[in-house]
Amino acid sequence: MVHAEERLALIECFERDGRAGRTVDVHAWPLTLGRALSNRMVLDDAYVAPRHASIGPDAQGRLVLTVLDTANGVAVDGRRHGAGSTCLLPEAGATLQLGQTRLRLRLPGETLAAEKPLPAAAAVATPWLLGLALLALALAELGLGLDPGADLTAWLPVVVGLPVAVAGWCGLWALLSKVFQHRFDFAGHLRITLPWMLAVQLTDAMLPPLAASLGWPWLWRLAAPLQVLLFALWLREHMVHVLPAYRRTVTAAVAAATLAGSAISLSFIHRATDSYSRAPYMSTLPLPATRLAGTVPPSVLVQDMARLADPLAARAKKAREEDEDDGAADEE
Amino acid sequence: MHLTGVAASLLRLGRRFLPQAWRAGWVTLASATGLWLVLSINAAGAATAEAAAAAASAPPGPASPAAESALSGTGQRIYERTRPRLLQVRTLLKTQDSQSSVGSGFLVDESGLLVTNYHVISQFALQPSRHRLVYATVDGRQGALELLAFDVVHDLALLRPADPAPLAGRGAVPLRPADEPLPRGARIFSLGNPLDVGFAVAEGSYNGPVERSFLETLFFGGSLSGGMSGGPALDDQGRLIGVNVAARRDGEQVSFLVPAARVRDLIERGRGAMPVTEPAWAEVTRQLQAHQATLTERFVALPWRSAGHPRYAIPVPQEAFMRCWGRGSPQAVRGLQFERSDCAMDSRIFVSGSLLTGHLSVRHEAYDGSRLGALRFAERYSASFRNEFMGVDDNHRTAPRCVERSIDRDGLPLRAVVCLRAYKKLEGLHDLSVLVATLDGSEIGVQGRFDARGVSLASAQRLTAHYLDGFAWSTPKNDSR
């Protein structure tokens, strides 16, 4: 039995998937690392030298890493040190890379992160509430589209389809978690999916009528990009849950994919409509009871038309110039 | 393909050797309007149809053999007299001898001036660098043609041979004087070269001007086929009544002629003109501008008719030069009830095979959602407002640009959208679409759409103001609430 007081350091050896596997207690310095049996810590890694490195205190008592006879060297917290060099180790510990082996050296000087709380009892009920809200919203939308007295089977797509779709979605993410984290974390992904899905649905259901009530076409046009943004954030949450160690990379990848996808889609829309919205006008009409926007006399709208002429003329002129050589308008 | 655009209105008779696309075009028309599907033309083609027509056109009752021979004798006589003055007009690709359009034509003076339809030579008019025009006479002479002038609105063109010698001295087809109106039912003879099969005479009857047509067009009760476009239609003395221009394929023997008076105008205007060598977009635009100004003037001068709606006054056009069709939802429907009215002009102006313009249409749908409740009605009412296509950037027009407002028509709140698309080659002309929805009713509403093709900005504004003026409460507001 090892007493904690006797432990000078702890070395954790990371597996390929990033989890800590084997741990080694250090009770005395120096500690040598390498493939040879004579080392205190023997590493099973073809990219590690027989005697690769040693850790021990220097004359002042500070802990120092000495790189021995190795071609690959040692990276300490990401900084590379070649054979023969020495490196002062921080008192809080360090991450070491020897060949393909990643180690964490934990020292008494380390500062520990605070304890993470378990999900509270209330939070366990939240998914159920969110799920019910989502189902209610979907049923309301379906109900609006059905004529009165519609057959009960018409409700099946949502009653059955929505839970199946959500389960399938979370199941796929949980499989990814299983691959990367060895944990089929269905509940974790469900907790992510439900609020985001609800947010996307609510945006779709609320924003257009709100914009119509206020008479703000710009707000109406915002609904689609906002949904894309929400969906991207939603995906990011899932991916971060699968790869918690790569939060920044995942964020950058999702942002890049979203930007690239939006740019391509916008360029297609722009080519066909000469604007950045597929809808040429706000096509949601306000309910009479919620119509908050004022009205103007028809002459104002007729006056508005004048400002369309110049951009249209410019666009037509550009098309004529592009077409000048072949004049192919009559060929189709 | 080339003729699908034509299908949107009338079948132009300049044959472009695309019979498949042609028929497909007509099926499109039939299904688009929902009215003429059953009667769309079959594949048997014009030859059998014409034979049947000739048989059917024999005079009814106790016709003596002598009378019959006299009739066919007239046809013979007219053909013999007109034969030297009858031509086939071909548009060929400049780089090869394949023909891209074939029609007919006829000489109108001793020097060899000839008339055909604009749509027969439109490819040359718009792309003279890629096409050339040639004529072929009944006796097999051929030669190059020059385009002097055209009337795109009435679909006429005036040409002359590059070398006048072969056509000079053949005489001219005389025009029937304007002060000698032809009685309805009079026998007339249309000449031309149908489907490039050979020169032919088609007998039929004169039925006066086409009703509710903006442009004066004559109704010829006889068969016209592709390739006869631009050929003359003559009275029994061989004088010009009109020029073959189009036929309806959803009926039998419903064909159309451009009146001789328009031919007279064009000859006067174009006789001394310089031949066209550059793309004629500017001249086409000038003529369309004049047409749209007249059309707008006449349309705005007409008061709206009542749609008979209990709550709203809805603009429905007079049927002076438009034709309206109505349709309602079946009574048994559980959901949204509606009545629909569709009014459109038959007169459309052919600019090129893929561009017809210069016409108006007015449409509305009156919705009753009392069986649905307010929320369900709102969902369907919005969906219907969304389900309107404003067009995208294409070969001829830019993408639409729109303005939208909630407007007030004497207390009636409306949502109105106005979209304009500019023509790329017809500078200063636009397609206008106005979309209107009433906003006051929670279970009732009307949505209307007005479209004008090929109008100036000023006309678009006048037409929009006129259309919006057509919406109001049908009775004082308090009663209708």
Description:
The complex is a heterodimer of chains A (332) and B (481). Chain A is α+β, with helices and mostly antiparallel strands. Chain A folds into two domains: 103 residues, Tumour Suppressor Smad4 (Sandwich); 144 residues, no CATH class. Chain A is built from eight helices and eleven strands. Chain A has a six-stranded antiparallel β-sheet with strand order 2-1-11-10-7-8, with no helix packed on it. In chain A, strands 4-3-5-6-9 form a five-stranded mixed β-sheet, with no helix packed on it. Helices cover 25% and strands 33% of the residues of chain B. In chain B, strands 15-16-19-23-22-21-20 form a seven-stranded antiparallel β-sheet, with helices on both faces. Chain B has a six-stranded antiparallel beta barrel with strand order 8-9-10-13-12-11. Chain B has a six-stranded antiparallel β-barrel with strand order 2-3-4-7-6-5. The termini of chain B are far apart. The chains are: A alpha+beta (332), B alpha+beta (481). The interface between A and B is large, with 54 and 74 residues.
SSE blueprint:
The complex is a heterodimer of chains A (about 325) and B (about 475).
Chain A: E1 9-14, E2 20-26, E3 31-34, E4 41-42, E5 53-57, E6 63-67, E7 74-76, E8 79-81, E9 86-88, E10 94-98, E11 101-106, H1 121-145, H2 156-159, H3 161-181, H4 186-214, H5 217-242, H6 247-273, H7 298-304, H8 306-323
Parallel strand pairs in A: 3-4
Antiparallel strand pairs in A: 1-2, 1-11, 3-5, 5-6, 6-9, 7-8, 7-10, 10-11
Helix pairs in contact in A: 1-4, 3-4, 3-5, 4-5, 5-6
Chain B: H1 4-7, E1 11-12, H2 19-33, H3 46-56, H4 65-82, E2 86-93, E3 99-107, E4 114-116, H5 118-126, E5 131-137, E6 142-151, E7 156-161, E8 187-192, E9 200-209, E10 218-221, E11 232-234, E12 240-248, E13 254-259, H6 260-270, H7 281-301, E14 312-313, E15 323-328, E16 337-344, E17 349-352, E18 355-357, E19 360-368, H8 374-386, E20 401-409, E21 412-422, E22 430-438, E23 444-455, H9 457-469, E24 472-473, H10 477-480
